[in-house]
Amino acid sequence: MRAAEPTFQLKDNDVWVMAGDSITAQRLHTNYIEAYYRTRHPEWHLHFRNSGIGGNRVGSILARFDYDVAAWKPTIVSIELGMNDVSGPVDVYIKGMKELIAKIRAIPAQPVLISSSPVDDGSIMGDWKSDRCKNIDPFTVALKKLASEENVVVVDQYHALIDLWGQNRRKGEAAAVKNGTWPPKATPVPATPAATPAAPAPGAKPVVEKKPEPPIAPSLIRLLGNPVHPGPVGQYTMAAVILEGLKADEQVSSATIKADGKVVEAKRCKINDVSAKDGKLSFTRLDECSPWPIQPIVVDGKEQVHVAKQATELLPAVLNLSQYLLRVPGLADGEYKVSINGQPAATVSAKELAVGWNVASAFESALGERAEIIIKLLANLQGPLNNEWRTESKAKDTDKLAAAQKAIDEAEVKIQAAVQPVAMKFEIEK
Questions:
Q1: For residue 180, what is the DSSP state?
Q2: How many CA atoms are closer than 13 Å to the CA of 174, on its beta-carbon side?
Q3: Upstream peptide bond of 227 is cis (omega within 30 degrees of 0)
Q4: What tens digit of pLDDT does each residue of 55-86 get?
Q5: What's the DSSP call for residue 9?
Q6: Which residues on neighbouring strands pair with residue 313, listed in sequence order?
């Protein structure tokens, strides 16, 4: 009889170590996943630890497993590798992953395998623009086979994202070709007399001149970052795919309030202080949990990038993971201004409000301010505080390790307070 498909289990007081290479070490999609679970389960005390190091392969994590994974005393360990392993044989990768599974189970903890993300270079399935992106395909297939054999949870983000990212970049190239900005015109280099190369020092390795990397075609929606290391837009799509793969709960709460102020439904929330007069409907809403905190804007150079808007445009699942619904039947036709805590949130039609508007889409409102606060607190925890702990764990300095742990504990108290639901004042009027 075939074993039941393994399911991801998260519970109160879990310690989740996220191990991987430089994409994990960026502390973007890992922090976003942490923000999702902390706000979706504010009643729990959850602990997340980043264990990513640039250039890592399976052998790297096996070598540092004791002091940089097991030392955290985790109950969950996710391994996200492949981007660097693909330069070697797939059987070495799978052998190493199998050893990691055994080590994780021996702690004991729940292993979770996550494939590498694709390279954002315009590759799509069957038409790859780089060998690296192409080679991640068989590694991911082999990883899924191993997970099935070992009865381990696995998330395949590579195949979920490659066509999404690739088609986005190809559309961007097509648009750039149309407006004459692609391909880039080569800058002529004035001819100079060839210099006589200096003789290498005895025993020195010959200098191999690297060919410049060909330019990457522009994308329609910029993921930010670079093709191997996406920025916030791309990493929110990564986080969404991983959360979907872990079967994360999409429901936040829902409320139905008639235009005359009558509360019809309040699921996973409480509605108070309802008022319907002079063409304005107002009420206070306190939810049991909160929508996924998504950064509304980041600054890239001199440009403001609307991260949440672009990520959800590229992959609607980013927004779908937060079903934070408000229904207001009975309004006269037209457009209505919605404010949250006195700040403009959105303009929504009477039709949208009647069928159910997802409040989570109001990124640049009081929800966005709250998201910025939470993301900043997590960045501090997973950045300097997390790294200090790892340094002292490797050095086996008991006193400094205790001090590093104390700083983490204090930071988590602040995070726990920040993720608690707060009452929101809603106002709806034409």
A1: T
A2: 7
A3: no
A4: 999 999 999 999 999 999 999 999 999 999 99
A5: -
A6: none
The CATH-assigned architecture of domain 15-175+224-249 is 3-Layer(aba) Sandwich (3.40)
Query: Which residue, among 104, 54, 48, has the nearest Cα to 79 in the 3D structure?
Result: 104
Query: How do beta strands 110-114 and 153-155 pair?
Result: parallel
Q: What is the pTM of this model?
A: 0.94
Distance CA(30)–CA(318), nearest Å, equals: 15
Average pLDDT, the chain: 95
Mean pLDDT of 99-124: 98
Give the H or E element holding residue 280: strand 280-287
Q: Distance between CA atoms of 112 and 129, rounded to whole angstroms? A: 29
- Nearest 5°: the CA angle 174, 175, 179 is 115
Maximum C-alpha span of the chain: 89
Tell me the Ramachandran region of residue 367: left when phi exceeds 0, alpha when psi lies from -120 to 50, beta otherwise. alpha
Establish whether the linkage from the previous residue to 108 is cis, with ω within 30° of 0. Answer: yes
- The number of helix segments (H) and strand segments (E) in the chain equals 13, 16
- Per-domain boundaries in the chain: 15-175+224-249, 251-367+420-429
Distance, CA of 411 to CA of 24 (rounded, Å): 21
Cβ(38)–Cβ(6) below 8 Å: no
Question: Which pLDDT tens digit goes with each residue over 222-244?
Answer: 999 999 999 999 999 999 999 99
